Model the fold of this input.
Amino acid sequence: MIQDIFPHQFSNVFENSVSSSNACICPTFENQIFLLEENNFLKFIETPDVSDNYQFLFKLDSVPFYFKEQTNEEKDILSKKFPEGKWIKRKDLRNVLPKHIAFVSAIALQLADWYKNNQYCGRCQSKTQHDSKERMVFCPKCNLQIFPKISPAVIIGVFHQDKILLTKYRNGPTANYALVAGFCEIGETLEDTVCREVKEEVGLQVKNIRYYKSQPWPFTDTLLAGFFCELDGSADITLEENELSLAEWHSRNEIPVEENFVSLTNEMILFFKNHPEYFEKSP
Done:
């Protein structure tokens, strides 16, 4: 998956410092990040000197990364200074190589977007300030503390004998096959969300819910939790047409999905295809 970047090491431990050497910068502009292209691969801008108006993000392989939201003028200057550079939208980073560049770029844009959206206090509208000890902004007037928000969501592999339920979203970012998925609501457990989303999107009942794996998904500020569950009752699908354009059962030898090494959804579909022994066991 996109976060599996070994042997590279990602560290999100917060630091309140500006590096004077061996650093990378991530210029951002309206949910785009500026990367340099070299031999059909992308890389970050390396610099021995980071100015004080850049904000610390994280470290990759012990190298600190910083960002600054560019003005229109700064954006144009940057593009002229680095003609080999290109602006890439967050949603398009899933297709970027090498994979560790794609992952940390998406995280950089996720954090940059959070900082931009929390420049003012939602309680009293005062200007917020950056905390010096942790990744947080606070209101100096009413003392509201604001931390990065991550939305929990579930990816659901519903199976019945040797078939798995595949879907396509009506207004999704791609036309790829997917699984039933959805965000957790207030007061729900993850397992409650599994049952509700399956019922809402395809009109089915499920049982024997088993956790599979999780994935940070910076493209939608989400933490995904993957579950497999068994059909309970009728296999007749009632499609939620506002959400999905398609939902259908596919047997293992007919699954029309190829590995992309990016998403939890893709991995779960292929795990069902390639590991029938897992689904023959009692949960």
